[in-house]
Amino acid sequence: MASKLRGGEFADTVHATWGEVRALAFHDAVRFLTAQAGSLVAALRSTLFQTSPLLHGSSLMMKSICRRWFFRLSAVGLIGVLPHVAVAQVPLVTAGANLNIDFNQELDVPFSGFAGHWFVDVDLDHDPNAGPMIKIFKSPFTDTGAPILLDAQQPFALPIDEKFHLLPPLPGGLPQSVEVRDWHEEILTPGFVWVIPNDTSIPQIFPPGTSLITKNGVPHPWEFIPAVALPNRIDVKFPPILPGETLDIHKALQWIGTPGNRIWGDNVLDDGSTFDESGIRVWEYPTVPEPGAWALLAVAVIAVAVQRRR
Question: In total, how many domains does the chain have?
Answer without folding.
Answer: 2
